[in-house]
Amino acid sequence: MPYRSLNPDKIIATATKLEARVATRFPESGLRLVAVELVVLSGDIARAAHKLEGPIWSLRLLLLGVVICGALTFAYVGTFLSFDRLTGIALRSVESIEAVINTAILAGLGLTALIKTEARIKRDRVIGHLHSLRSIVHVIDMHQLTKDPVVLLAGYQRTAASPERLLTPAELTRYLDYCSEMISITGKLAALFSQSVTDEGVIEAVNDIEMLGSTLSRKVWQKIMLLESRLPDM
After folding, report:
1. How far is the C-alpha of 44 from the C-alpha of 35, rounded, in Å?
2. Per the UniProt record, which residue ranges are transmembrane (predicted)?
3. Which of 89, 98, 144, 174 could form a cystine bridge with 179, CB 3.0-4.6 A?
């Protein structure tokens, strides 16, 4: 269903359009470079999420080989070795039977571990990509950090250590709005992984990214609301 899941192509298109908007208003700003990086990262994340949707065939073939070898081994022991011959190698005692049972249990545990290996590999790959998203979210936050609308209020006095303020109230509003949109896009990119990999660890990590983005976006919108409430004539 097209409206029940995120479309990676739409997210990339949105990031690309946002980069064009940033480039139009702030062509020389560092925020534009971050927007360009976000477009590149969007493509990388979309391809990675699509790749993780399918099985890891090399690992599944290895698992199939292990299962076949194990089955053939038990078949050989049960078919080609008679109880008389087993008696000759001291497998008649209770201790030997217990050892065989323990071996079978260990083999089953090993097989279970192999089955879970695919999920663990996918989870590790997702965590690596989410680290890139977490980093760019913090980079976006650094760009809005010094964009404080308080400096536009009457009576504000700069100090020698104050950062340079070149944006008008209208430009500052657009700048902050772009930051909020970029943070939102990172959350949607993270959500692509929760669509592709149904793993509790992945879902938890994606939720952490979305929670981080929501917290930082809330800070941005507090500044926008301050601009709109205290500078009605901008």
Report:
1. 14
2. 57-77, 97-115
3. 144
Residue 62 lies in a domain: no
Using alpha carbons, list the distances in angstroms from residue 139 to 51, 143, 198.
27, 7, 29
Which residue shows structure tokens 């938890």? Answer: 204
Q: What is the pLDDT of residue 209?
A: 92
- Name the helix (H) or strand (E) containing 123: helix 94-145
Q: Does 198 map to a domain?
A: yes
pLDDT attached to residue 211: 93
| Phi, psi (degrees; rounded to nearest 5) at 194 | -70, -20
Helix (H, G, I), strand (E, B) or coil at 56: coil
Print the domain residue range for 198: 8-54+122-230
**Span 52-77, pLDDT tens digits:** 887 766 666 766 676 667 666 655 55
Tokens 């209770």 correspond to 94
Inter-residue contact 39 to 19 (CB < 8 Å): yes
Q: What is the pLDDT of residues 169-222, one digit of tens each?
A: 888 889 999 999 999 999 999 999 988 888 888 889 999 999 999 999 999 998
